[in-house]
Amino acid sequence: QVQLVESGGGLVQPGGSLRLSCAASRSIASTYSMGWYRQAPVKERELVTSITGDNTNYADFVKGRFTISRDNAKNTLYLRMNSLKPEDTAVYYCRAIYNWGAIYWGQGTQVTVSS
């Protein structure tokens, strides 16, 4: 079993920035892919961004504003979020797919963008 723990969420004003972290209890060097998803109230969970090897993928609604990165030495995935908008308000979840096929999710961290 692998635990993923997100942190870094909070309340930020429009135009502000946050950096989310996702700490894994097992080496993320063994992951096939990792990603960030989000779920706003009464909406389905949606992919924000993912990283597979050296390849990154971003949803159109965050391109140019969000950046995904990973630190294998710290077993941590990051999401840098700039130019935040009220519509970015959601619970953000980390997901990891390990090489043996297992998929793990974190418990989520709330991001609220409001003045």
Structure report:
- The structure is a single chain.
- By secondary structure, the chain is mainly β.
- 0% of the residues lie in helices and 55% in strands.
- The protein is built from no helices and eleven strands.
- The strands form two sheets. Strands 2, 4, 5, 6, 9, 10 and 11 form a seven-stranded mixed beta sheet that branches. Strands 1-3-8-7 form a four-stranded antiparallel beta sheet, with no helix packed on it.
- The protein starts with a strand and ends with a strand.
- The mean pLDDT is 97.
- Strand content range: over 45%
Largest sheet: 7 strands, mixed
Amino- and carboxy-terminal Cα gap: 40 Å
Provide mean pLDDT, rounded: 97
- Integer-rounded radius of gyration: 13 Å
In DSSP terms (H or I, runs of 4 or more residues), the helix count works out at 0
What would the principal axes of the Cα set say about the shape? globular
Which sequence of SSEs, written as H and E, runs from N to C?
EEEEEEEEEEE
Number of strands: 11
Class derived from helix and strand content: mainly beta
Low confidence ranges: none
Helix content: under 10%
